Amino acid sequence: MMIQNDEISPWVGYVATTLILVAASEAGRFLGMRWARRQPDARAPELTSLEGAGLGLLALLIGFTFAMALNRFDTRLKGVLEEANAISTTELRARLLPEPQATEARKLLGDYAKVRIDLIRGPGDSASLDRAVHRSTELQAELWRSAVAASAADPRSVSTGLFVNSLNEMIDLQEIRLAAGRNRVPPAVLLLLDGVAIVAIGLSSYVGGLAGRWGRIPHTILALMIGIVIAMVADIDRSRSGLITVSQQTMLNLETSVTH
After folding, report:
1. Would you call 178 exposed, middle or buried from its count of C-beta atoms within 10 A (0-12, 13-18, 19+)?
2. DSSP three-state, residue 244
3. CATH 1.10.506 matches 10-257
């Protein structure tokens, strides 16, 4: 079964799912062959149609779940790019502020970018995320105080207004990225996917056993294929770890352009 925990490898869930699917296949074969021995003339043609419907429903559900995970992946990727651009733009506009606010704001932005970069390079656990968010919020408050001081010095300054706008966007984007990271494929959908997969492969093996045409290798391969697809969906749905991860290169580029 797929577990939505970024600190646990998705392949642990893959192994568990595959073993369950193989067990369902074996159970279906056993029941089908047992019933065929009891009722040698039992050949329920309607079960073949039901088998096809089950596998078709599984394919549809896999496609639906994959699309959900991919959409969330794209949202996270877009969030990284937008936040990096917002930090860079805010730093450029900070240079237009009067002194001493310009120097102070640029230093704070350098510290802010460093916190975000250190989070990317960190272990990725929830404790590290909480510390980074707390420190980021503190730096945002200090930057806002600098913006207030610059506005008080010259309320009509266009450059200060531009800085405030970009700073506000930068603050908003942190919350947007946090929300995107928490927005996962609903656990109920993953459980439904697992359940349909178990029933579909079990039914397929039952029909094969009933008809005397069940093969262990083909059904094991089918279980492996379904398991790896489900694991891939779970991997894409993860925030920062796994085989498929959101590129953080645009944020890492801030190390040379913003940090001091």
Report:
1. middle
2. coil
3. no
DSSP string, 20-87: HHHHHHHHHHHHHHHHHHH-TT---HHHHHHHHHHHHHHHHHHHHHHHHHHHHHHHHHHHHHHHHHHH
Which pLDDT band holds residue 171 (cuts at 50, 70, 90)?
very high
Per-domain residue ranges of the chain? 10-257
**Exposed e or buried b for every residue in 216-249, given b needs 16+ CB within 10 A?**
eeebeebbeebbebbbbbbbbbbbbebeebbebe
pLDDT digits (tens, 9 = 90+) for 192-234: 999 999 999 998 888 887 777 667 788 888 888 888 888 888 8
| Cα–Cα separations (whole angstroms), residue 48 to 120, 196, 208, 237 | 51, 17, 9, 34
pLDDT of 26-53, one tens digit each?
Answer: 898 888 888 777 776 655 666 777 788 8
Q: Which residues are CB-neighbours of 178 under 8 A, at least 6 positions away?
A: 133
